Amino acid sequence: MREGTDTRYFVEAAAKVLEVLESFDSYEEELTASEVARRAGIPYSSAFRLLYTLEKRGYVTRRPGRKKYMRTPMRKHYRIGYAALDNSVMFSDTISRGIVVAARNAGVDLIMKDNGLNPQKALTNVDMLLQEKVQLLIIYQRDEVVAHLIAAKCHEAKVPLIALNFAHPGAYYFGGNNYLAGQLAATFLCDYARKHWKGKADKVLILAAKGRGSTQELRKRGIRATLSKGLKTLRPQDLVEAPPGFTSQDGYRETNSFLKRSAGRPKRILIAALSDFLAIGASKAVEKLGLGRTTAIVGTGAARDARNIISRGGSFRASVAYFPESYGERIITLALKVLTGEDVPLTSYTNHVVLTPSNIKDYYPQ
Question: Tens of pLDDT along 50-74?
């Protein structure tokens, strides 16, 4: 112990950890546990346990098959900004929680803002984050005009941009493969019709979602292309697209209006909702009119609230999963690769699976 050290505040265990790290003269030097024990002046068993702990926490490394340790070079401390879509929405909040945890585990200084589904607030948040001198910006917002403005601001500030779920000009993209998501939703509906109605349907309703037009258009194209192949007897006039909505109230209103307009009360109804909120609203309208047994609804997102409803059974029968809980680690890993100059693809997709009552527990056991 150094002279003048107050023993009341000195932590011996912490000092031993530092002595192990300080026994390496450089980041290139390789030492065995015995050599570390001798240099640090501690028993071999203590040196081995401390080195094991430090290796698990990433402070020392060992080459495969070697008994010698090296100090891990200090990682550069990065400052990243993140503007969330709306953390009062479960899907967005799940993504945000994952990003926060992944940033903390990676030693990233994360500055987070909440856009609250407000395009003007998203612009203000971007300005604030750029003023904070962030080295990379992660943006989750859906307004198309604002996307161009945000891209211009980041380009001017020379700050790389990663856009989540809604593409932004010149930005790296992480999120759904929207055309594939549309295909998967429609494939489920076609399979349902084949299994229960001999491949026929009286009416099909597409509940469009508000947001980036290009994103929604890709989903709709995937749905339409797959339906046209899978339901050969479906007439063009029997496929209806509702005005874009966002909330479950929108889904209820548009579905209720569609069903009441349909002459003769169709007995085989398929509904493709481009968000789970819309699907939840649609299911309420269907159940109220007593059409639950003859209707199949598929949603998009498969966040926890939607999974709970699907598991209970009813007209809301499936949803295309985006696995928002997996976003965080993948996004922070992508951000670090961009910041360190690695060659990364401009587009990265999450995984997609159609979740139904029969397979939800395979992906979400809890």
Answer: 998 888 777 888 866 678 998 876 6
Residue that the structure tokens 């085989």 belong to: 268
Whose tokens are 């029997």? That residue is 238
Beta carbons of 47 and 89 less than 8 angstroms apart: no
Other residues' Cβ atoms within 10 Å of the Cβ of residue 128: 14
Give residue-wise pLDDT tens across range 194-212: 999 999 999 999 999 886 6
Residue 362 has pLDDT above 60, yes or no: yes
Instruction: Please indicate, yes or no, if residue 195 is contained in any of the structural domains.
Output: yes
Name the amino acid, one letter, at 126: V
CA–CA separation, 2 and 209 (whole Å): 67
Helices (H), the chain: 12-22, 33-40, 44-56, 90-105, 119-131, 144-157, 178-197, 213-230, 248-261, 276-288, 304-312, 327-339, 360-363
pTM above 0.70, yes or no: yes
Same domain, 141 and 275: no
Tally of domains in the chain: 3
pLDDT of res. 74: 62
